[in-house]
Amino acid sequence: NRFCAASSNRTGFLCDDRETCVPASHVCNRIQDCSNGEDEQEKLCGDLPSSLPGYLVFHCSNPLYWIYADQRCNGMNDCGDCSDEMESLASCPPCGSEWWSCTPVLYEYCACIPKRLCRDSIQHCASWSDEYIC
């Protein structure tokens, strides 16, 4: 079993050394993160996503799209339809302390925007709450 928890408790891939945990999205990215290169081997990366172990993959609600499991619930609209942030399959926690909950006007976000975007004189929430309340 190669499942491990990478930084911030994100899903990862355990290298042969049984110590190095590579974040899921760094597997099959053409950069060897494991000392033996097992995170880039043909048997793992030959037919994405079906060649990957299931724990490394999140299937978007649109069956044509998938993302790496560590991209689920990261606040970004990685699937393009927010299914990685809002669908019951994603089961994401509510917005964290660094995020503001609102209906974003930018396609990039789903249900929260980074608080660093608050009060910057640019509307990011449909309700303008990022400029007046946040």
From TrEMBL:
| Keyword flag Disulfide bond | yes
Q: Provide the alphabetized UniProt keywords.
A: Disulfide bond
Gene symbol here is Ldlrad1
What range(s) does the LDLRAD1-like C-terminal domain occupy? 93-132
Question: InterPro entries from the xrefs?
Answer: LDL_receptor-like_sf (IPR036055), LDLR_class-A_CS (IPR023415), LDLRAD1_C (IPR057430), LDrepeatLR_classA_rpt (IPR002172)
Q: What protein name does the entry list? A: LRAD1 protein
Q: Does the keyword Disulfide bond apply?
A: yes
